[in-house]
Amino acid sequence: MDRATALVPLHYVALGARGPEDVVADPHGRVLTGVADGRVLRVHHLGDPHTARTEVLADTGGRPLGLELLPDGDLLVCDAERGLLRVGTQDGTVRVLVDTVAGEPLRFCSNAVALADGTVYFTVSSRRYPLGEWIADIVEHTGTGRLLRLAPEGGEPDVVLDGLQFANGLAPSADGSFLVIAESGSRRLTRCALTGPRAGHAEPFADLPGMPDNLWREGPDGPVWVALAGPRVPPLDLLHRTPPAVRRTAARAAVHAPYRPSGTVGVVAVDDAGRTVHHLTRRRSGFRMVTSVCAVGDHLVLGSLREPGVAVCARPAVR
C-alpha cells in the first residue's frame, strides 16, 4: 500500500436528515443519496456551502443504502428493508424489482451495478443480521454475504457468489469483464470474473488498510473510489481466528455495547489491476464513519451511515 497523504476537508453540507450512506454523482455534478428516514435526495451546488440546496426525489418507505444511476436518469436503490428497488427521479415512483431470493425475504440489500446489457448485480451484506445489527456480522465474521444477478428481463435472481464476508460496494471493470466487490468483514476487495472460462469465480483483488464500504467508479477511464468505514482493528483480526461459538458470544455483546466510530477516516482509489492510485486519510476527524465517496469536479464528496450531512474535501492531483 502506498504511503497515505492528507484528506483535506473543505466544508460540510447539512442535509436535514441523518445517514447519507451512499453518494453518487450524476453527469450534471449533482449528488444523489438516501437517508435514514427513507428519502432519496439530490443535492445541488455542493462546491459552495452557501448555495447548496437539497431536493427530495422519492421516499422508499424503508432504508435506502447503495444507489446506482441508470442511463435514463432513474435510480437503482438497495433498500435494507424493502429489497432492490427502481426509483423514478422525475415522478418519485418506487417499484420493487426483487424482494425475495428462493423464497427467502431479501434483507440487507447493500449495493448494485447495472451493466450495459441491462444485467444488474447486487450484494447482500448479511443473511443473519439486519442493518441495525451490522456490527454483529462484522464481529461474528459470518460469511453470509452474497452477490446476486438479475437478468435484463427480470425474474428470479441468481446467486453468483455465496460465503462473502459482509459483501458491500460493487464496481465494474472498465471493459465489463469483472466486478470489484468490497468485503468489509475481510478488509479487502474481491474480483469476480464475468466473462471467460473463470466466469463466476472470485479471487483476491486488493488488501486494504481498513474496512471498505461503498465503491464508486469514476467513468470508464477513471479509478474505483473506495470508502473506508473504519481502520483495521488488530484485536478484531485475532477474534476472527477463534471458534464460531466465541465469535457469536462476542457478536451478542457488540450489539448492546455503545459504538463510537473511529476518528481516523480515509478513502483509497484503485485501478483495474488493483493498484492503489490514491490513499487519503485524516486523523481526529469530526466527520466519522465514511461509507461512500464520489468525485465532483475538484472535490471529493463523502457520505456516512451516521452523520447528518456530507463532507466536501479537496480532490488530489492526478498521478
From TrEMBL:
Cell cycle among keywords: no
Residues annotated as domain Strictosidine synthase conserved region: 116-192
Keywords: Glycoprotein, Phosphoprotein
SUPFAM superfamilies xref list: Calcium-dependent phosphotriesterase
InterPro entries associated with the record: 6-blade_b-propeller_TolB-like (IPR011042), Strictosidine_synth_cons-reg (IPR018119)
Cited Pfam families: SSL_N (PF20067), Str_synth (PF03088)
Protein origin, superkingdom: Bacteria
Record-stated family: Belongs to the strictosidine synthase family.
Name of the protein in its database record: SMP-30/gluconolactonase/LRE family protein
Organism: Streptomyces tricolor
